Amino acid sequence: MGALLVTHAAMQNVDKIKEVIMKFSPRNRHLLVEIIEEEPKEKSKSSILLPEDYKPKDSAHSYVRIRDLSPDCTINISKSDMALVETRMLTELEVGEKAYHLILENYVLGIVTRR
Description:
By secondary structure, the chain is α+β, with helices and mostly antiparallel strands. 17% of the residues lie in helices and 33% in strands. The chain has a six-stranded antiparallel sheet, with no helix packed on it. It is extended.
């Protein structure tokens, strides 16, 4: 029974190592991005009643932070830049247990900078 516990503990360590080693790298002109969530607007009191399950319409555009880019990208953008993209063109995919967001470089509308 003691050997079984060691084996189980060893398997848990292998899973942790795989999780650390596994890294996703975009290809084919895709950018790996992190979606920047907008801060919720203050609720104002109004006389219009809405259903409890009402959700406001999603924005057509999203702010993202560039985390990685494919080697064949031609867009002039760097890691950690903030960009404005078309929300509907974002692709979410899962590799292992981690979720990633990708967008093709053509759907970057612009780079956002501070003055």
